Amino acid sequence: MWIFSDNSKCIFFIWNQWCLYYAAVVCLLFSPVRTNNVCPTSCICAKDPGTVTCRDGEDTEVPGDIPEWTSTLILQGRNISTLRRGAFMSNGTELQMTTLSLSHNGIRAIEPYAFLGLPRLHLLDLSHNQLEYISGRAFHGLLQLRSLYLNHSISPAATEQLSNALDAQSLLNLHRLELAGNALKSIPPLRLDMHNLHALVLINNSIASVGGGDVTTLYQQKRVRVYLALNPFRCNCELGAFYYWLKNSSQCPDAGRLLCSEPEAKRGVPVENLREEDVDCMSENLEAVSYVFLGIVLALIGVVFLMVLYLNRGGIKRWLNNIRDACRDQMEVYHYRYEQDSDPRLANVAV
CB under 8 Å to 40, separation ≥6 — which residues? Predict the structure, then answer.
């Protein structure tokens, strides 16, 4: 049986206190606490301007140790295929970041609430990715977002999803939206009245015509400037409403760069230089109707003529017979005279 003295109890108590203190120090050293001075691995940090640049690498996630003083974060050349929920809130704290560039990362999906923790973000660049899925709540929480760049990023499957994501209440302060180079065939069905949008960039897409509904919406939102250069416009009468909008509105700053792609006779001609008759469906329809009417009239005349011939077939036959007999008599006279002129004896007798 062991008997402890007062000294042994005191030593045992002190030993326990030191063990607890050591364990606490170890936990602090190895816990994932965000620090203000540590730069993420494989990144370049400049604290004075507040810029963190992380280019190239094999990382598949957003760095989890972004300094709190970061105002501009540039992530490029990574393999971040999916932006997961709370990707920028690794320790549950909000960042004061105002600019975020995520171009050239091969991003294919943006999950709901991916940008939580960035309440002060003003510019978000997602250009040159391969977005196939965009959650309807992808941009939730970006109350101060002013500019959103999605150039060369949207696949056809994600086009409709993008419209739903942009209708979020979080983007009420969006001023500039860039969707260049996404092979869009029409203006996305955005609720322009919902946003504070001032610039919509749709250059270098596959827009061949702009429908009357889109033109009406643009007329109603006078503050919006739409950039549409480098699109293959089909310059026929279907472009009429858009043509008159270009002529009567200053909402398209690059109107002089809008060129016809079809038909071949108008290829390369500026849309605003077309004549009114080139885009007037009424004149084209009237011309088509006139040709049809002319064909019908000629057909009726032909039918009437054939009916007259049929009804007068007896008189026409007698008339043809009389002409034939008259021609025969005349030919016999000519034949008799020819024989006289050719035989000298007959000529002497006649004398």
Answer: 52, 54, 63, 65, 66, 67
Distances 328 to 319, 332, 334, 338 between C-alpha atoms, Å: 14, 6, 10, 15
pLDDT in tens, 178-201: 999 999 999 988 877 767 899 999
Strands 51-55 and 82-83: unpaired
pLDDT, tens only, 252-303: 999 999 999 999 999 999 999 998 888 877 644 445 556 676 778 888 888 8
C-alpha–C-alpha distance, residues 185 and 205, integer Å:
7
CA distances from 128 to 77, 105, 113, 199, 279 (A): 10, 8, 21, 20, 36
For residues 332, 337, 341, 342, the Cα torsion angle rounded to the nearest 10 degrees is 10
**Do the beta carbons of residue 298 and residue 271 sit within 8 Å?**
no
3-state helix, strand, coil in the chain (%, to 5): 40, 15, 45
Residues 6 or more apart whose CB falls under 8 angstroms from that of 269 comprise 235, 259, 260
Q: Is 226 within 8 Å of 202 (Cβ atoms)?
A: yes
Compute the distance between CA of residue 57 and CA of residue 8 in angstroms, rounded to an integer. Answer: 57
Token pair belonging to 240: 């009429």
pTM: 0.71
CB burial of residue 174 (10 Å; 0-12, 13-18, 19+): buried
Q: At what angle do helices 313-342 and 281-311 cross, to 10 degrees?
A: 70
DSSP 17-47: HHHHHHHHHHHHHHS----SSPPPTT-EEET
